[in-house]
Design goal:
By secondary structure, the protein is of the alpha/beta class. Among the domains are: 168 residues, P-loop containing nucleotide triphosphate hydrolases (Rossmann fold, 3-Layer(aba) Sandwich); 104 residues, 3-Layer(aba) Sandwich (Rossmann fold). It has a six-stranded mixed beta sheet with strand order 2-3-1-4-5-6, sandwiched between helices. It has a four-stranded parallel beta sheet with strand order 8-7-9-10, with helices on both faces. Strands 12-11-13-14 form a four-stranded parallel beta sheet, sandwiched between helices.
Length: 399
């Protein structure tokens, strides 16, 4: 169930004509990137999917040169720097023993965003790193430095091994959704409403992940719609170890599931695995403080056709207005698009489940708000709070 956007993202950065595109071709062992002697051949960032031994499927992002010039060049640089917010790991390509302000500025940006990175000296067959250059690099960075030649393929295995050491395992390993919450032999009831927002013939990613995770933990699934959940409990007298429901059914399900049975939501479990959960919990509690005229930012991770039952654009705004009894203002930003207003204009940021972007992209998306002290939460926790079952929904993950 891992889509293209859920693969780890690796950004390739460096000056023009230092061999970024050649490096990608050498890494993929195919001509996936255009190579030219003309500086600035790569303009907009370009994504390439590939398999890296020991890591698995990954998305490599080729960027424009950080030393581009002119008005258009500055726009290209800006687009390249925006990629830093999307990646799990960076590779900084250097050459010709050049290491100055361009590289130092990039490293500072990586560090600010907590992006691990690797330094690759390309064209080592023409000009290996000097001791003076190595000393200069180490004054600004403690990253691994690898000699490489895209022209000859020299030291490719060392580059891949160093990349594996650099990229965090959380970027490519499949974490458990319910680890430490359930145990072998448990029966887990999954309540999955089917409405106009549900994909035809399919289930949403967190639901599918929950089913698989229950099995992986040696437990048993019972999957029902919300209209059959109460009937199942009465007919079977089975007491599930945990009930997980869609957040939009929280209010209804909370009434039919006995208090002594732990209850949470797919989106809450997913938020615990993929997002800054403690920040989400703190942010949800700020919903009670919303007042007239407050601005709220809704962050969607994907672009989709909006319906009259759209959770982020219709339902959550309506529920928040009803809960706060105030006229609130809402902005919605889809995908990884730029947030136009200063983040400090908002009293609350609400992130969707993030099932179409990587874990790192979720954290990066919320980084500015958290740094500025703006409360953040996500759809599931916000809905649980509005329905008055917040403490019950988060309890399984706060042990």
């Amino acid at each position: 169930m891992k889509g293209k956007d859920l693969k780890p993202h690796i950004g390739i950065f460096g000056r023009r004509n230092f061999g970024k595109s050649s490096f990608i071709n050498a890494l993929t062992k195919s001509d996936v990137a255009i190579v030219s002697e003309i500086a600035g051949t790569t303009t907009d960032p370009v994504k390439k999917s590939m398999e890296i031994f020991g890591i698995g499927p990954a998305v490599i992002i080729d960027t424009a040169g950080i030393d581009d010039t002119g008005e258009l060049g500055q726009k290209r640089i800006a687009k390249s720097l925006e990629i830093i917010k999307q990646i799990d790991c960076a590779i900084l390509i250097i050459a010709n023993n050049s290491f100055d302000d361009f590289e130092i500025d990039l490293i500072q940006k990586f560090t600010k965003r907590h992006i691990p990175y690797l330094i690759v000296n390309n064209k080592t067959d023409i000009e290996p790193l000097t001791n003076a250059a190595i000393k200069k690099i180490k004054m600004s960075s403690d990253a691994l430095i690898v000699e490489f030649s895209a022209a000859t393929g020299y030291n490719l295995e060392s580059v891949i091994e160093s990349l594996k050491q650099t990229i965090p395992e959380t970027a490519y390993q499949n974490p458990s959704l319910l680890k430490d919450v359930i145990k072998p032999g448990d029966i887990v009831m999954l309540i999955t409403p089917i409405d106009s927002e549900a994909p035809d013939g399919r289930m949403i990613l967190p639901q599918v992940m929950a089913i698989r995770d229950v099995l992986d933990n040696g437990a048993m699934n019972v999957v029902v719609k919300e209209t059959e959940a109460e009937l199942f409990l009465k007919k079977t007298n089975i007491k599930p170890a945990l009930v997980i429901t869609d957040s939009q059914a929280f209010g209804f399900v909370n009434k039919i599931i006995p208090e002594d049975i732990p209850l949470t939501g797919f989106s809450v479990a997913y938020a615990n695995m993929r997002g800054p959960f403690q920040e989400y919990v703190k942010g949800a509690r700020k919903i009670s403080e919303l007042k007239e005229g407050d601005k709220i930012l809704i962050l969607e991770s994907c672009t989709h056709q909006v319906s009259c039952e759209d959770i982020g654009r219709v339902k959550i705004p309506r529920w928040l207005k009803e809960f706060s009894k105030a006229e609130l203002e809402f902005d919605t930003v889809a995908g990884l698009s730029e947030i136009k207003r200063p983040i400090t204009d908002y009293k609350l940021v609400i992130q969707c489940g993030g099932c179409m972007i990587t874990r790192k992209q979720v954290f990066s998306r919320l980084y500015d708000a958290i740094e500025a002290g703006v409360p953040v939460t996500n759809y599931g926790l916000a809905i649980a709070y509005i329905n008055g079952i917040f403490e019950r929904a988060v309890a399984p993950f706060l042990k």
